[in-house]
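Researcher: Go.
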Amino acid sequence: KEKMEIIIERDYTNGTLTRFDETFPETLQGRISAEEFGHTIRNINLCFQEAETYDWLQFLESLVGCLSIYTFYICFDSRYTRAMKRLDAFLRSENANVYADKGVEWLNPLK
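Model: Structure:
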């Protein structure tokens, strides 16, 4: 199948949190199902939600990082980095197991 690029727009309905529109693009019709697209885009959004949620654990991690002059992050990945690694692994898995034979490839939005 012919290679084409499709850009999924950001969804700003919930403010500036990183989130992508879950509306199924017409250009993917016939290549993948709306359910496959929905599963993938929801998981992408979930990874960003986990990365950008600020709670007491995130506060504690940031505090330890600051107090250690950020040497803490030499030994340990930040919450954001861990979530982005999960996103990258998820996209590689989806591309290999679901989309490879359909002529579709998801690219990491951070790369």
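Model: The first helix runs from residue 34 to 52.
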